[in-house]
C-alpha cells in the first residue's frame, strides 16, 4: 500500500520546457506588438519633423510678397505654411461661402474670394473671415471689388472629397470646406493647389465681434504629438508583458510534465 506524500513535502523546482506551438504563437504576437510600437514611433518622428518644418516656414522666414517663383523652384517647399503679404484686386463678385460656421453662439459663413495676383495662376482663393448670417447680405454689399493688401498664411488646399458646391445662400455657392480643386473649376484662373487664410495668427487674443469679417488662423501646434509616444509605449509594454507570460507558461515542474505525457526528468 502506497503512503501518500506529506503535503508539506518540498516541490521540485520549475524548469523551462520548450513548447513549439506556444512559442510560434508568442513569437508572432511579439513581432506584431513590436511592429505596432515601431510604427507609432515613426509617426511621432514624422510629425515632430513636420511641425519643426512648419515652425521654420511660418516663424523664421519672412512674409512672401509675390507668388512668382524662380524657374524650377519647388512651390510646396517654398509656399506652404509661409506668411504672406499680397496686394491685388479682391474679386468679391466671385465670392463663395463656407457654410455652417458658428461663432459667438451665432450661425455664420466664412467668406471666400479670389485675389488677383502675379504668379503661375492669376488668382488665389482667400478665406477673408467669418460673418454672421444676419449681417452677411449687408457685408457683401459694402465690400465691392477693390484693391487690398492681404496678410495671412498660405497653405496647400484640400483636393480630396467634395468637388462641387453643396448648396447656395444669397445666390452664392456654399462649400463645407475650402476645396481648392473644385473652386478652381468654378473660378477661372484660380490656383488649384494653394489658399490663403487671412489675418494674423490667432493665439487667444480678444476679438471684437463687430469688426467684420472676423479673421485669424490657428497657430501651429507647439507640443510634440504625445499620443503617438503613449501608443508606442503601450505596444512595447504589451510586448514585454507577453515575454513574461510566455516564460510563466513555459516553466514546468516534473510532475506537471508527467501529466502532459512527457518523461520525467532525472
Q: Your description of this structure?
A:
- There is one protein chain.
- This protein has a five-stranded mixed beta barrel. Strands 1-10 form a two-stranded antiparallel ribbon.
- The protein has helices at residues 20-60, 75-79, 136-142, 180-186, 226-250, 254-259, and strands at 15-16, 82-90, 96-103, 106-116, 123-132, 146-156, 167-169, 172-175, 190-198, 251-252.
- The chain contains six helices and ten strands.
- By secondary structure, the protein is α+β, with helices and mostly antiparallel strands.
- 34% of the residues lie in helices and 26% in strands.
- The protein folds into two domains: 15-63 and 221-266; 82-198, no CATH class.
- Helix 1 packs antiparallel against helix 5 (226-250).
- Strand 3 (96-103) and strand 4 (106-116) form a beta hairpin.
Question: Summed up, what is this model?
Answer:
The protein is an alpha+beta fold. 34% of the residues lie in helices and 26% in strands.
Q: Strand order across the biggest sheet?
A: 2-4-5-9-6
Strand content: 25-35%
Structural class: alpha+beta
- Low-confidence regions: none
Main sheet characteristics: 5 strands, mixed, barrel
- What count of structural domains? 2
Reading the helices and strands in chain order gives: EHHEEEEHEEEHEHEH
Question: How far is it from the N-terminal to the C-terminal residue, by CA?
Answer: 25 Å
- Overall morphology: elongated
Rg is 32 Å
Number of helices: 6
Mean pLDDT: 85
Number of strands: 10
Helical amount: 25-40%
- What oligomeric state do the depicted chains represent? single chain
